[in-house]
Amino acid sequence: MTDFTLHGYFRSGASYRVRIALNLKGVPYADVFHHLRKGEQREPGFLALNPQGFVPALEAEGDVLTQSLAICEYLDELFPDPPLLPATPLARAKVRAAAQLIACDVHPVQNLRVLKHLREVGLTQDQATAWAARVIGEGLDAFEALIGRQSGPYCFGDRVTLADLCLVPQLGNARRFGVELVWPRILEVERACLALDAFRRAAPENQPDAE
Amino acid sequence: MTDFTLHGYFRSGASYRVRIALNLKGVPYADVFHHLRKGEQREPGFLALNPQGFVPALEAEGDVLTQSLAICEYLDELFPDPPLLPATPLARAKVRAAAQLIACDVHPVQNLRVLKHLREVGLTQDQATAWAARVIGEGLDAFEALIGRQSGPYCFGDRVTLADLCLVPQLGNARRFGVELVWPRILEVERACLALDAFRRAAPENQPDAE
After folding, report:
1. Domain shared by B29 and B104, yes or no
2. What is the rounded CA–CA span in Å between residue A108 and residue A119?
3. Cα dist. A30→A2, A88, A99, B51 in Å?
4. What confidence tens digit (pLDDT) does each residue in A21-42 have?
């Protein structure tokens, strides 16, 4: 019996972020998987937990938390070591901004819900894929510019931060949509992250519900 | 001369959030407006500040901060009174999740950039507007369910939080897209917020660049 239950889906990039955070913090958790392509996140039992019908959701303290970045910051406040954010307000803001660039401006604009919606309003599958690829490409261009000013193996230096937790899952999506990864600093960071057990264990292909 | 310069646009919902935060904290700031419909955010001078080419951006401490929620949390850390987040990790996570529901899953999926993109791939103006209205409606349905469990004049009780800073600007967008506002708790919160000087002074129509 663990204190935390993560509702997720192997291929959900936002669930992947939370899995990395749990692993980095060494927090044991139980998994409940919801197959998004089969619409299991719209079943009444799950909607009672999260009215938005999205994964991830984390059962904790007899309550339910939603939104991956809010969950990661919650875990960071409960289990401060290792920290996911630097110490000064300015440095914290820069890490959060990089994370939000992906979590606000890239991922939700290219996720399954939006692509389905695009098909419903008449776009072809190829047009929907091109949409996703363009959104990801524009976002990663800006992300590369942001972190290009930093040094160190990870996005913001010698420690993994919330920015790395967002970047690595997004690169998985980028590849699925055929985006050519032309960003040297981003690829260098990805290599450093994937050398860590916490990232590898969180990867989609290593989840029990992987297809 | 002030220590903070906000790059924004009167109608940008994300800039509006930051204006409310600055006003609530009583922090003086200088304004620079970029006319998004004229594409001024793509000019080289601004791209040098924010490679993503989005507003808001806040010049602070000789650096540039981007992403509205990251900026609001930065201001909250520098100027803790009044706080924009509650005290316990669980309560903070719930406020952040409500804020992110809007900042990740609603606003970026219906903003000017995406609507322009939809027109480019062949949707009519009416279809693009219907898209925005649907995204907003689904998001506010979930938001109402989240905050319906709370009492008090604001989203999460007796104090304004980051959730209110996201909700009020989003309702302005909802009206612009003709969304019928059918959520009683949301409307009650909006009334309470708009009774505050910090919200009213931040409103789009009260900005010097308002049309």
Report:
1. no
2. 16
3. 6, 34, 25, 40
4. 999 999 999 999 999 888 888 8
